[in-house]
Design brief:
ion channel; 4 domains; Ca_channel_alpha-2/delta; Rossmann fold; Calcium channel, voltage dependent, alpha2/delta subunit 3; single chain; 7-stranded mixed β-sheet; membrane; 7-stranded antiparallel β-sheet; alpha+beta; metal ion binding; 1059 residues
């Protein structure tokens, strides 16, 4: 019988599986008992021979058996404990509370200093004062002289600010581009706020973990410490205005429900409509996550800008605001404007929505954007708003005409609002901002310095090796304490930033286990920190995703379909929850199935809640060993030892004198009593000293192998490494650094391969899920690319006890050349061929080790699914970005449509535990023309999980009458399967579709449902909607009210005050 076979060696690697593609021509001699097709016994022999060979190499060079023995030796003296999740999360919450409290205290000191400085200052319109302008510092003119407001400003790189050049003695002042640097209001504000410099410096000396501190003035300028130079964009513009920032808006005003009315009558054509659109967009900029809104366009009819949101309000998160902005471009002007009906609709929405309790349940406002009003509509106000005047009216008169200014200003004054006239696009920003001062009046009069905290956001200034830093801000309002009667003057807002990296340093990663993690969310359910939060994407350089700051907990813990965990945390409860989860690792390329137990509680003094997740099994147990301090320190200081960079053994950040210390240096000073005041985790240090002693013999073992010239003569094994549950790692090179095939491995460039603040190394995680004593093999790829590194990693876990409750104490492995790995495969198979003697081989190699199995053998994979060797599960990604083509439908914003034919589908196989497929779902079809942009979308994709009980299987595929056979055989002691395929038939034409999902039918309805759906949220405790002592006559900036309108307004005001 003539046979033409292919042997496929498959496993999970990075974005694909390692594939050694072999075409084998065979002359099979008929022997007793032989059958047509591929002999299973032969494949089993090959798999056994190769499995034994690679395990022998992996165990020998890693020293896994020696390490297992060393951990067994003190078995009787160690103590295994079950982790108390409730106690763990409560202790973590207390630490976070203390850290946040220190930041809030620093902010409060700034408030007190700012109010005192302003109280002592008398405004002087003639004041001349030279200050350090953030843009102009160190700038010189053509003659080499410092420019005005520039001056020589000392800047030095500082590692605490990621080596950004800063001045730790002084602050700088930034003024928006559209404002005059020497405006008297600016100069006076800058002058008195100089007093904050002393407090900035004092705060930083008290708490060296502080980063940016600042004061955002209601006049528009921004004072920042430490001083740093600002650089305009390519157009010479700095678009930053502190009054637009969420921390400013949240601190200055109370949560609010807003309806924006936009006049689209015929008179609004041309420039007026353009200004109106910009005005609405600027209003949206001032709304935050605790606010709710809708936009209504009106002429002779009422038009909801988003028709599906008729009669309701939506949360003002980034996604919803961007959605409405897209619809603003579709507005066009025609007909006449019936303002009375629009006002009635707006009042009705606010009243009905407020009664549901789903909005802010605090301040309410109607923003009116129009070019005029022919009457005052007092009948409407009397019906819906008087005498309580709970809804403020803010009219914006568009254009230079003032014929209707009196009517619009009267509306504002009669309803505790503010009137502004906007003549040009340049006027929009300043005029929109004025309403914030009115909304802040009740809080100012009450003199309530509410502390507010923002959601997570990216600070592009503090870029580290992994990209921009995530942070949150604590902010408080600053009020005038002078006797300004009842005007309620807001001076500005002070704020202090906290990097989430600092928050993560508080997490006791060694107590959470290999797959455990901690996370925190806001009162709105948005993620503050979570290992699955992906705020950045790679496209040339790391960039922020559009909706990165409003990722909901339910979008990463998506198996919790009923939001039980999310809602409990939002409502600041303390409790536990359990569920089965599918966690992706290796940047989403692999999946692990686990059962997690969640423990959660609130963080006092903040709107945040914190939780920890512990995986059942080895993840719920911890062990304690004990060695002498002398022995531990001796072995900890060996050159091959490193500790996890982002773990905190000793807090060296809180004192300036400790900042230069490495973690190992700090541990030594603390444990020897020379620095007893260092804040160190004694429990963690004791365990890391134990690990240092137990793993020390590996260094001598590896050195012996490296010195033995007969070993590893072809330098196939390049690196051996180990890691322990305490973040300790050891490495040994068998080849010089410049000869390494993959130099990124075990470096800061390889985030997945090292101990991180929120995860163990990938090779450690995957080894922990293997059967004890077996190795997991994989191919690493470059971060953000599919570049094959031409190496194979092998790792195995070290258990303390032969028990499912035993903690995984360490993992150990090697890096070897891919070519060396392939050669060992052929050597093992050649030996089998000699024994069987009746095979004649012809072999060639394929370099496609990064291909998915289904891309090469779609028909085989399809058959394996039908036979039950694999089962399909569904995974979701709610943080995906899809490519949207200009002129295409916007369906990419919902579940992407995916279409696969069996030879074109791609997936990742990991045969012995899990296998899953993932592909870039961002492109629905190849288009030859049109620009693309990245837009947020949700993706659904299949994963293929192997049945662990199936060790081998055979099958046949009917390819239009030509039967093609295959054999799949597990390779012992590994995560690998060998696949041998009869190659005599071409099955590409006869293969049916595996998976088709069409979303065009339900895209629009699904989008509307999402906009309407409001998840549970915890409303801010503080609310200041109005105050009886407000000065309602301070209500506009344009023309004076005429005498008859003033006369109409006074009785209303008098009646209100008398109440």
């Amino acid at each position: 019988m003539q046979g033409n076979w292919r042997i496929l060696f498959s496993h999970v690697c990075s974005s694909s599986f390692l594939l050694l593609w072999i075409s084998v021509g065979l002359d099979v001699v008929e022997v007793a008992g032989s059958q047509q097709g591929i002999p299973l016994s032969v494949v089993k022999l090959w798999a056994s021979a190769f499995g034994g060979e690679i395990k022998s190499i992996s165990a020998k060079y890693s020293g896994s058996q020696l390490l297992q023995k060393k951990y067994k030796e003190p078995e009787k003296s160690v103590r295994v404990e079950e982790i108390d999740g409730v106690k763990l999360v409560k202790n973590l919450a207390v630490k976070m509370e203390e850290m946040f409290r220190r930041k809030a205290e620093a902010t409060r000191r700034l408030v007190e200093a700012a109010e005192e400085a302003h109280h002592q200052h008398e405004d002087n319109p003639e004041l001349q004062y030279e200050y350090f302008n953030a843009v102009l510092i160190n700038e010189v003119d053509e003659e080499g002289h410092n420019v005005e407001l520039g001056g020589e400003f000392l800047l030095e790189p500082n590692d605490h600010f990621n080596n950004l050049s800063v001045n730790l003695s002084l602050s700088v002042v930034q003024v928006p581009t559209n404002m005059y640097n020497k405006d008297p209001d600016i100069v006076n504000g800058v002058y008195w706020s100089e007093a904050l410099n002393k407090v900035f410096v004092d705060n930083f000396e008290r708490d060296p973990t502080l980063i940016w501190q600042y004061f955002g003035s209601a006049k528009g300028f921004f004072r920042q410490y430490p001083g740093v130079k600002w650089h305009p964009d390519e157009h010479g513009v700095i678009g930053f205005d502190c009054r637009n920032r969420k921390w400013y808006i949240q601190a200055a005003t109370s949560p609010k429900d807003v309806v924006i009315l936009v006049d689209v009558s015929g008179s609004m054509k041309g420039l007026r409509l353009t200004i109106a659109r910009q005005t609405v967009s600027s209003i949206l900029d001032t709304l935050g996550d605790d606010d709710f809104f809708n936009i209504i366009a009106y002429n002779q009819e009422i038009h909801y800008v988003e028709p599906c949101l008729n009669g309701t309000l939506v949360r003002a998160d980034r996604a919803n605001k961007d959605h409405f902005r897209e619809h603003l471009d579709k507005l066009f002007a025609k007909g006449i404007g019936l303002l009375g009906e629009a006002l009635s609709e707006a009042f009705t929405i606010l009243s009905d929505f407020n009664q549901t309790g789903r909005g802010s349940v605090c301040s309410q406002a109607i923003m009116l954007v129009t070019d005029g009003a022919t009457e005052m509509y007092d009948d409407v106000f009397e019906k819906y708003n008087w005498p309580e005047r709970k809804v403020r009216i803010f009219p914006y008169l568009i254009g230079r005409e003032s014929a209707f200014a009196d009517n619009l200003k009267w509306m504002a004054c009669a309803n505790k609002g503010y009137f502004s006239q906007i003549s040009t696009l340049a006027d929009v920003q300043e005029n929109v901002m004025r309403y914030l001062h009115v909304m802040s009046r009740p809080k100012v009069i009450d003199h309530e310095h509410d502390t507010v905290w923002t959601e997570a956001y990216v600070d592009s200034a503090l870029n580290d090796k992994s990209g921009p830093s995530l942070m949150t801000t604590v902010a408080m309002p600053v009020f005038s304490t002078k006797n300004e009667t009842n005007q309620g003057i807001l001076l500005g807002v002070v704020g202090t930033d906290i990097t989430l990296q600092e928050l993560m340093k508080l997490i006791p990663k060694h107590m959470l286990g290999i797959h455990g993690y901690a996370f925190a969310i806001t009162n709105n359910g948005y993620i503050l920190t979570h290992p699955d939060l992906r705020p950045l994407y790679q496209e040339g350089q790391k960039r922020r995703k559009p909706n990165y700051s409003s990722v909901d907990l339910s979008e990463v813990e998506w198996e919790d379909k009923d939001d039980i965990l999310r809602n409990a945390m939002v409502n600041r409860r303390t409790g536990t929850f359990s569920m089965e989860v599918k966690k992706t690792v290796d940047r989403g390329r692999r999946v692990l199935k686990m059962h997690n137990d969640y423990y959660y509680t609130d963080i006092k003094g903040t709107p945040f809640s914190v939780g920890v997740a512990l995986s059942r099994g080895h993840g719920k147990y911890f062990f304690r060993g004990n060695v002498s301090v002398e022995a531990g320190l001796r072995d900890l200081e060996q050159p091959d030892v490193a500790l996890a960079d982002e773990w905190t053994y000793c807090n060296t950040e809180e004192e300036h004198e400790h900042r230069h210390l490495t973690q190992i240096q700090a541990i030594k000073l603390f444990m020897t009593g020379r620095r007893p005041h260092l804040k160190c985790d004694r429990e963690l240090i004791q365990e890391v000293l134990f690990d240092a002693v137990v793993t020390a013999p590996l260094e001598a073992y590896w050195t012996g192998l490296a010195l033995n010239k007969s070993e590893n003569s072809d330098k196939g094994v390049e690196i051996t490494f180990l890691g322990t549950r305490t973040g300790l790692s050891r490495t040994n090179l068998f080849v010089p650094v410049d000869q390494l095939s993959n130099r990124d491995f075990l470096t800061a460039e390889d985030k997945e391969g090292v101990f991180n603040a929120d995860h163990f190394p990938l090779w450690y995680k995957r080894a922990a899920e293997q059967v004890p004593g077996t190795f997991v093999y994989s191919i690493p790829f470059s971060t953000g690319t599919l570049e094959n590194k031409s190496v194979v990693l092998a790792s195995t876990a070290i258990q303390l006890l032969d028990d499912r409750k035993s903690p995984i104490v360490a993992a150990v492995g090697i890096q070897m050349k891919l070519e060396f790995f392939q050669r060992k495969f052929w050597t093992a198979c050649d030996n089998s061929f000699i024994v069987l003697s009746y095979f004649l081989l012809f072999v060639f190699f394929c370099c496609c080790c990064w291909l998915f199995f289904g891309e090469v053998e779609g028909a085989v994979m399809n058959k394996l699914l039908q036979m039950g060797s694999f089962k399909r599960i569904t995974l979701y990604d709610y943080q995906a970005l899809c490519k949207e083509y200009a002129g295409s439908s916007d369906s990419a914003r919902t579940l992407s449509d995916v279409s696969f034919l069996c030879f074109s589908f791609s997936f990742l196989l990991e045969f012995n535990i899990y296998s899953w497929w993932n592909v870039d779902l961002s492109v629905k079809a190849q288009r030859s023309r049109g620009k693309t942009m990245m837009v947020p979308c949700d993706t659904e994709y299949p994963a293929f999980v192997s049945e662990r009980t199936i060790k081998e299987t055979t099958g046949n595929i009917d390819c239009d009458g030509c039967f093609r056979s295959f054999v799949i055989q597990q390779i012992p002691s590994s995560n690998l399967f060998m696949v041998v395929v009869d190659n005599k038939c071409d099955c590409t034409e006869s293969c049916s579709a595996l998976y088709i999902l069409d979303t065009f039918e339900h895209n629009e309805s699904l989008k509307c449902d999402r906009l309407k759906f409001q998840k549970d949220r915890k409303k801010p405790e503080s609310c200041h909607p109005f105050h009886p002592e407000e000065n309602a006559m301070e209500c506009g900036s344009a023309t004076r009210l005429s005498s008859h309108l003033t006369a109409a307004l006074l009785p209303l005001i008098a009646a209100t005050i008398s109440r």
